[in-house]
Amino acid sequence: MERKYGSEQQYCTETYLNKNISKDNLEFWMTQLPELLKNTPIIYLAIPGSHNTMTYTIDRRNDVGPDEPAYIRALGRYCSILSKPIIFNWSVTQKDSVKEQLNGGIRYLDLRAATKTRDNNIYFLHGLYGSEVIKPLKEVVSWLNDHANEIIIIDFQHFYRFTEMDHSRLIAIINDIFRGKLCPILVNFDHVSLNWLTSRKYQVIVIYRNVCAMNHPYLWPSVFWPTPWPDTVRVDQLVNFLNDKLKKRSTKIGLISQCLLTPNISYVMKHLCGDLHSNLTPTCQKAILHWISLQKSGPKGINIVITDFISEQNYLFPKTVIQTNLKLLKDSYSL
Is 126 noted as a catalytic residue in this protein? Predict the structure, then answer.
């Protein structure tokens, strides 16, 4: 017997529940969400992000960045042939361009910026310097122009060798590139949903983790988007850390779960011929994919989840995170 549906929305919801997230629909996954999820606060949605998003732009020939200790910078200066390849191998966390990451479902970008003493430009970095910030950010806004119902959260996590003037220049770049797309700061934002944002043509939330962002109405402070760092090479410690932070999360603000392992100097010295992708990523991704699959979104569930090398296994990480939202949908549908 043909089933009678109570409403078109109910039909669309059930259709979505029966559909698996695939690489083909990651590019427009927010656009394709059922209305129920589009009206859910974004701090209650499961959103995939990339850790150190712009490390695909760094080069083993580039200078060692000021984010490294002084003795590492000295090795990079006086013993670059040996040291820079090692730094490079343990600094790259993404191999895909920002456009490829966005097409692969990533909606949170983790950025670190630094200046150089010899010019006035601002660069991305992690261990080694990467590209200047302007071109990749313009690629982001170009992508947004072609994806009117997609939202991106951009997090300027760390700043190195920055003066107040440098902050002013970077803030001016952000305001210029994303003009008209920036969501203003809201003290209470548990009503901010995808539909709320798109109805106002807001496509970008910028988090700026520095006091220089104070009094800038479009730069969100750290307090609204905590991002606790597990800082471990052990999977068991990582999982325990993620569980603890999730258990304690506030229902009034977002939460960034860093699903990644961080090599310390001791670990790198024991694996000088290795790299992050080969030595830590496989073990980490196996554990965190299982962990994510056990979670759900919602007020006490996961929110933004980030990791390294997001395109592994045909973008299995963003698929798994996005799929978590179906549990929230099923709970609502069963009521």
Answer: yes
